[in-house]
TrEMBL record:
Species this chain originates from: Gasterosteus aculeatus aculeatus
UniProt-recorded Gene Ontology molecular function terms: 3-beta-hydroxysteroid 3-dehydrogenase (NADP+) activity; estradiol 17-beta-dehydrogenase [NAD(P)+] activity
Protein name, per record: Dehydrogenase/reductase SDR family member 11
Assigned protein family: Belongs to the short-chain dehydrogenases/reductases (SDR) family.
Pathway: Steroid biosynthesis; estrogen biosynthesis
């Protein structure tokens, strides 16, 4: 999860990242150093948080409030998949997907909205990094439950948009739904078969993390009166 807040004239914004363990924290610190070396403004701050644990999520938001005043933009980008088919999968795998892909996203959204309202932020943004799996069911048994959680994200984003309108606020909610992106995702999904994971990325020219970042920038740069509901994107060579 990514949290942004504008809180200093000398710095365009602060970005806190939550989720994962020490490996994620170390990679975030490395990215922070790279951004500073490249001359980007702002600060990238890692915060270790188990997104399947509500208490840790609430603790993270409390720390953000103390250190950075609050949240202006919340980007829910944590997600995972397990090879657990509907007819033979393990309940623990299903539960973990729901906890991270659905419940953590909902809790972070709720807490981000609270932060915005407490500070009278009326131009905030909640961006859910969804998946093309939230718009069509992949014809593969080990993807079906994952797709169900991503369909939930599609529904949640529209529900958030409707509730924001009922609250008469100009805070916006958006989904970004990518197809295959070359990250560590496939290797974690197929952790017992690294060759299968590698084949996913070797089969086509995949989307890159930079492509998703560009979509986020596009959404955040939209005029204040424009509500972008969903950005669907996939590699040109991807079939499904």
């Amino acid at each position: 999860m990514l949290i942004c807040s504008n809180d200093g004239a000398e710095c365009k914004g602060r970005l806190s990242t939550g989720g994962g363990g020490s490996a994620v924290k170390n990679s975030t610190l490395k990215l922070s150093a790279e951004c500073q070396s490249a001359g980007y403004s702002g600060t990238l701050i890692p915060y270790k948080c188990d997104l399947s644990n509500e208490e840790e999520i609430l603790s993270m938001f409390s720390a953000i409030k103390t250190l950075h005043k609050g949240v202006d933009v919340c980007i829910n980008n944590a997600g995972l998949a397990h090879n657990e088919p509907l007819l033979s999968g393990k309940t623990d795998g299903w539960r973990n997907m729901i906890d991270v892909n659905v419940l953590a996203l909902s809790i972070c959204t709720r807490e981000a909205y609270k932060s915005m309202k407490e500070r009278n932020v009326d131009d905030g943004h909640i961006i859910n990094i969804n998946s093309m799996g939230g718009h069509r069911v992949v014809p593969s048994a080990d993807e079906h439950f994952y797709c169900a959680t991503k369909y939930a994200v599609t529904a949640l984003t529209e529900g958030i948009r409707q509730e924001l309108r009922e609250a008469n606020t100009h805070i916006r909610a958006t989904c970004i739904s990518p197809g295959i992106v070359e990250t560590e995702f496939a290797f974690r999904h197929h952790n017992s078969d690294p060759e299968k994971a590698a084949a996913v990325y070797e089969s086509m020219k995949c989307l890159k993390a930079e492509d998703i970042a560009s979509a986020v920038t596009f959404v955040l740069s939209a005029p204040a009166h424009v509500q972008i509901g969903d950005v669907q994107m996939r590699p040109v060579e991807q079939v499904s």
